[in-house]
Amino acid sequence: MTDGVAVDELVAEVVEEFGGLTVLVNNAMAPAHGRLLDVDEASYRGAWNRGRWRRGG
């Protein structure tokens, strides 16, 4: 997902439906280094783009 607003909405829906979010897996191919809540959007997007480049996508 590349739309930050859509991600926020999805997480809110999950929390509402299930009462919380315990595990979130990022399999974007290349890690954005740091704790999940400390990684800014630019770092996350950079990691995503590097992973896509490796796959040829």
Low-confidence stretches: none
Query: What is the number of independent domains?
Result: 1
Span from first to last CA? 14 Å
The biggest sheet amounts to: none
Please give the radius of gyration in angstroms: 13 Å
Please write the string of helix (H) and strand (E) elements.
HH
Number of strands: 0
How much β-strand is present in the residues? under 5%
Bulk shape: elongated
Strand pairing plus helix content: what structural class? Answer: mainly alpha
Tell me, rounded to a whole number, the average pLDDT.
78
Helical amount: 40-55%
* Count of helical regions: 2
Walk me through the structure:
The protein is mainly α and 57 residues long. The protein has one domain. The chain is 53% helix and 0% strand. The chain contains two helices and no strands. It has helices at residues 4-18, 41-55. The protein is elongated. The mean pLDDT is 78.
Q: How does the SSE layout of this entry go?
A:
Blueprint: H1 4-18, H2 41-55
Short description:
The protein has helices at 4-18, 41-55.
List keywords for this structure.
57 residues
